[in-house]
Amino acid sequence: MSAGIDKAGIDAMEHDHVFLGTDHARNERRIWLVIALTAVMMVAEIAAGTVYGSMALVADGWHMSTHASALLISALAYLFARRQARNPRFTFGTGKLGDLAGFASAIVLALIALLMAWESLLRLSNPVPIGFAQAIAVAVLGLAVNLVSAWLLAGGGHVAHANHAHHGHGNHGHGSHAHGHHHHGHGDHAHHAMTGDNNIRAAYLHVIADALTSVLAIAALTFGSLYGWLWLDPLMGIVGGLVIANWSWSLMKSSGGVLLDVVPEGETLPAEIRGAIETEDDRITDLHVWQVGPGHHAAIVAVLTSQPRDPAFYKGRLSAVEELSHVTVEVTRAA
Length: 335
Known about the structure:
- The protein is an alpha+beta fold.
- It has helices spanning 7-13, 24-52, 55-83, 97-125, 132-153, 198-227, 232-259, 269-277, 311-317, and strands at residues 158-159, 167-174, 177-182, 195-196, 282-293, 296-305, 324-333.
- The protein folds into two domains: 20-167 and 192-259, Alpha-lytic protease prodomain-like, CATH 1.20.1510.10; 269-333, 2-Layer Sandwich (Alpha-Beta Plaits).
- The protein starts with 6 loop residues before the first helix and ends with a strand.
């Protein structure tokens, strides 16, 4: 008669699936600070423009409101991911929520680029008078705010190491097959490669895109005021739209790839796993690797071997692969 498994043994083998990036809390705080800075400047510009009758200030103020709304996507993604990190309904945690937010932000950036280009084309065909001094002042003010925002967000776009890593718990076998997870902490070792946080990258790109717009506007307005080149302002708008569209496409590819569990070109993790497991007697017949959060990857490894061992043995071989946070191993005896 089986004695069963005692509760202490079950508790020791259970684990959570928190795959948030190391800088999650810091990035969240920084984005909220940038939103606050943008909101204050937005209110100030709209109020000043209304009092002094400056449509340029009012327009830029409302433009900053769309900028703050885009940043809010990133901030809310961090907030939700943190609060729901231990919700069992999220099978592999909420670490990929930042990539979903990054993908949404990429779409917003693409729309901004499209609107910039369209408005600029309209201005090229139908030039309008420009209040150069006032417009330059507004552009310089916007650039200052964006530079401060970029400085606040700088350094948060990459994760040097994961908060923790574990390879699951519990081993069980059936016939010639064995599946299992086993816990292994990696401490604070640095990963062999930098893993991007697409959410903070999206927020940073929003700020940089706005700063680029201000720089191009200042240049165009300055030359326009000196030489009367009214066409230069909309031309710079088209150039800015193309640059932002390129950034949007890059962000869309990286964040979408994570959402679809695509292994990026040049990724060495699958090769490292094969190198750690495969020997003359052991061969990997099926391997799945995917990112579950910034700095965190999961893997399912099927091993065919002439000398079967416990799954924990094979996961011990993977202990040096820093980015692995959750591993499932299946062992099959070779016929």
